[in-house]
Design brief:
Length: about 220
């Protein structure tokens, strides 16, 4: 019989907000037919080949067609300031969201010498702690993942299990799956295949593909 070992799945952190879908629009026309080469551009950029072909007004109009925005829509900086204000006032969801931004590097952070960091798991962990202490399931899962991987906090499998269990009991499918992995591998908790299967089933019932794959691997 071949024994399949299930490793701890690196489940992505739960983002504060998903990426918005852009509605298909009519391509802007210019007087010249310009062949645009393949290149990556961010949401509010236009292909470099057009930079010298359009006037500033035409560029602004084209960008507005690509990524239209409401006149009173806050800027990313304003959104961050509001999120931090809400987090500092004790809003658990905002605290978790701010932690995610520091973990991914979306929020700029600097070390003691003033060097800009690509991401800041320690600051992320601090905000996850605040949110998790209020019982916010997503933060409990995120903090558990940091403890499981030793990012921003000392590696502590038992603490990870504790946090995954709190989030799993609230129905967080990712936490249920990771809790199953911990039971299966015996990390931070005694090995128990039956309990692992139980948690995998709960997560799979919510549509968690990783949990279903783990169940299949156990067969």
């Amino acid at each position: 019989m071949k024994i399949l070992f299930v490793t701890l799945l690196a489940v992505p952190l739960l983002m504060l907000a998903g990426c918005g879908e852009k509605s298909p629009g009519t391509a802007a026309k210019t007087e010249k037919q310009i062949k645009i080469p393949d290149e990556f551009t961010s949401e509010k950029q236009i292909p470099s080949v057009l930079e010298n072909e359009l006037t500033p007004e035409e560029k602004a109009a084209l960008i507005n067609q690509i990524m239209p925005s409401a006149a009173n829509e806050p800027t990313p900086e304003e959104k961050f300031v509001k999120l931090r204000q809400d987090a500092e006032s004790g809003d658990a969801k905002a605290q978790n969201g701010l932690g995610v931004m520091y973990y991914t590097g979306e929020a700029i952070s600097k070390d003691a010498s003033g060097k800009t960091l690509s991401n800041d798991p320690e600051k992320a962990a601090a905000w996850f702690h605040r949110s998790a202490a209020q019982g916010y399931a997503d933060a409990q899962f995120n903090l558990g993942l940091l403890y499981a991987n030793g990012e921003g906090v000392p590696k502590d499998s038992a603490k990870a299990v504790e946090l995954f269990k709190k989030a799993a009991d609230q129905g967080n499918a990712d936490a249920q799956n990771n809790l199953g992995v911990m039971y299966y591998s015996g990390e931070g908790v005694p090995n128990d295949a039956a309990k692992a299967k139980e948690w995998f089933k709960k997560a799979a019932a919510q549509g968690n593909a990783d949990a279903q794959a783990n169940l299949d691997a156990m067969k």
